[in-house]
From TrEMBL, chain A:
It is a multi-pass membrane protein. Pathway: Phospholipid metabolism; CDP-diacylglycerol biosynthesis; CDP-diacylglycerol from sn-glycerol 3-phosphate: step 3/3. Its main location: membrane. The keyword Transferase applies. It comes from Rivihabitans pingtungensis. One of its GO terms (cellular component) is plasma membrane. GO terms for molecular function: phosphatidate cytidylyltransferase activity. Belongs to the CDS family. GO terms for biological process: CDP-diacylglycerol biosynthetic process; peptidoglycan-based cell wall biogenesis. It catalyses: a 1,2-diacyl-sn-glycero-3-phosphate + CTP + H(+) = a CDP-1,2-diacyl-sn-glycerol + diphosphate. This is Phosphatidate cytidylyltransferase.
Automatic annotation (TrEMBL), chain B:
This is Acyltransferase-like protein. GO terms for biological process: phosphatidic acid biosynthetic process. Keywords: Acyltransferase, Transferase. It comes from Rivihabitans pingtungensis. The keyword Ribosomal protein does not apply. The keyword Transferase applies. Pathway: Lipid metabolism. InterPro entries: Plipid/glycerol_acylTrfase (IPR002123). GO terms for molecular function: 1-acylglycerol-3-phosphate O-acyltransferase activity. Residues 46-165 form the Phospholipid/glycerol acyltransferase domain.
Length: 309, 214
């Protein structure tokens, strides 16, 4: 595995260790409170997530594709478990789980950009609507079809564009593309984490109080700014110049922020607070990947249009 | 009659079958989650009673229990369905350690094997509706639960609500949809009094109260 990958991975682990120590220190100084407990739960969950992600990324493209397909499956399952569906939707749901995920990821693995970029938004859209008519159930037809399309777009299409980075042809970039994928994931999650931290420390004015009480302007600008700066500082791991890395990181931060906000609005409309319970402190897997789902296609396309022949 | 007695007092299945059962429960957890919510009784004899919507009900309830509880819990099922084909009977007897009851038979109390199993110290899984329903909330309960509660006052009657299974594998469907299923455990009921109708209504309300959104 390329040396750069282990440098970046080592840096991530060092920061996580530091965060763990700080979390323990805060718990020791400030005693037990829901916020402190949540903080330490989140850090613990990060150890598990990174403990799985780093080895899988290091072990090559096939395993990485498999991991992301599994993540798409888990997030799609969380999303569709919470949205009401009717018995007539069963064939559509089967297509969503067992056809869209394998096909999309197979196309990504083949690097067949022309098809995987349109499979779900075009062909999936038509096919899922057509199959939905077979049950001859008109009740809430538009809402049901729209919900399932939405779920597949966010959980399958969005997330699949992250491992798609591995198959890009980037002539000016001799490193293993796993480094670029790690860079992207790092910037997105750092943006989430730093927005959370800045929000807790300095947050005052809310961005969208109706949709998400935790997002504040101070959190967004502070955390987002820091994450963009981190992305710029890590330009050596990417095919970009420092300025390009900063702008791309800012784009990723912005897209990720809106991903989180949009999915908070969806959650609110469904009457739930979290997508699931699989990650203690964070909620479900989709709570962690909502920003990735929006940011991945943006980052993938900008990289492709700017740097691939 | 002899066959029924044998079924009721049979010992735990052999080890390879128990390993297979654990694998099956892991597969169920991978597919539908079967996340336990709330606390089932940690020890002692328990009679779990739940809403019934699909063939996966028993497996998801078993998967949500701890290994210790699962090893001494026996689901109750109908002989006319589960004994009908040889492979179903094999699965019921060996894999799931089911107590089969003869609903249609004329000879004696159909619940006799269940009483035997309770007397032997096993915990039970019971579906008081008697049949599968496609609705979110359970239908009216039959009286078997009441008779068992009166005969075995020390068993803890725990209401359970199985969420989403009517969407995962409804009646008539062949393949399960991989949606998330939660198993909601409630607090054990007070022992049954003299009034059968009131007790069954109380048990029904206990299960409905566990369903999210109620």
């Amino acid at each position: 595995m390329h040396q750069n990958f282990w440098q970046l991975a080592g840096g991530i682990l060092a920061c996580l260790l530091l965060a763990t120590l700080i979390g323990r220190l805060i718990a020791w100084r400030h005693g037990d409170s829901p916020t402190v407990r949540n903080l330490n739960e989140r850090i613990h969950a990060w150890w598990a997530l990174i403990g799985v992600a780093l080895p899988v990324l290091a072990l090559g493209k096939a395993l990485t594709i498999a991991l992301f397909a599994l993540l798409s499956f888990m997030t799609l399952r969380e999303f569709l478990s919470l949205t009401p569906t009717r018995p007539g939707d069963r064939p559509v749901l089967f297509l969503a789980f067992f056809v869209s995920i394998p096909f999309q990821y197979a196309l990504v693995a083949m690097g067949w950009y022309g098809l995987f970029a349109v499979l779900i938004p075009v062909y999936g859209f038509f096919l899922l609507s057509a199959v939905a008519t077979l049950a001859q159930d008109a009740e809430h037809f538009l809402e049901r079809s729209a919900r399932i399309q939405w779920a597949v777009m966010v959980c399958v299409y969005g997330i699949s564009h992250a491992p798609a980075l591995l198959f890009l042809d980037l002539p000016g970039y001799p490193q293993d593309h796993a480094v670029l994928l790690l860079f992207f994931l790092l910037v997105v999650q750092l943006s989430d984490i730093l927005q959370y931290v800045c929000g807790k420390l300095f947050g005052r004015r809310k961005v969208a109080p109706v949709l998400s009480p935790n997002k504040t302007w101070e959190g967004l600008l502070g955390g987002g700014g820091l994450a963009s700066a981190a992305g710029a500082a890590l330009y050596g791991f990417t095919p970009f110049t420092p300025w390009q890395a900063a702008l791309l990181s800012a784009a990723v931060v912005g897209a990720g922020f809106f991903g989180g906000l949009v999915l908070s609005a969806v959650k609110r409309s469904l009457g739930v607070k979290d997508w699931g319970q699989s990650l203690p402190g964070h909620g479900g897997m989709l709570d962690r990947l909502d920003s990735v789902a929006f940011a991945a296609p943006i980052f993938f396309h900008l990289t492709r249009y700017g740097f691939a022949p | 009659m002899d066959a029924q007695l044998n079924l009721a007092s049979r010992r735990l299945p052999a080890r390879p079958y128990r390993v297979l059962r654990e694998l099956l429960c892991s597969l169920v957890r991978l597919l539908v989650g079967a996340y336990p919510c709330g606390q089932p009784p940690a020890s002692g004899q328990v009679v779990y009673f739940a809403n019934h919507t699909s063939h996966l009900d028993t497996l998801t309830l078993l998967s949500a229990l701890s290994l210790r509880a699962r090893s001494r819990t026996r689901p109750v099922a109908a002989l006319d369905y589960w004994g009908a084909k040889p492979w179903r009977r094999w699965v019921a007897e060996n894999l799931l350690n089911v107590v089969l009851i003869d609903r249609c038979g004329g000879s004696g109390d159909p619940l006799a094997p269940v009483h035997e199993a309770l007397a032997a110290g096993f915990s039970l899984i019971l579906f008081p509706e008697g049949t599968r329903r496609d609705t979110e909330l359970p239908g009216p309960f039959k009286s078997g639960l009441y008779h068992l509660a009166r005969a075995h006052p020390r068993a803890q009657l725990t209401p359970v609500y199985l969420e989403n299974l009517h969407r995962i594998l409804p009646k008539g469907a062949r393949l399960p949809l991989p949606l998330i299923n939660k198993v909601w455990f409630g607090a054990p009921l007070a022992p049954a009094g003299d009034d059968k109708t009131a007790f069954l209504a109380h048990a029904h309300a206990a299960v409905c109260a566990l369903s999210p959104g109620h």
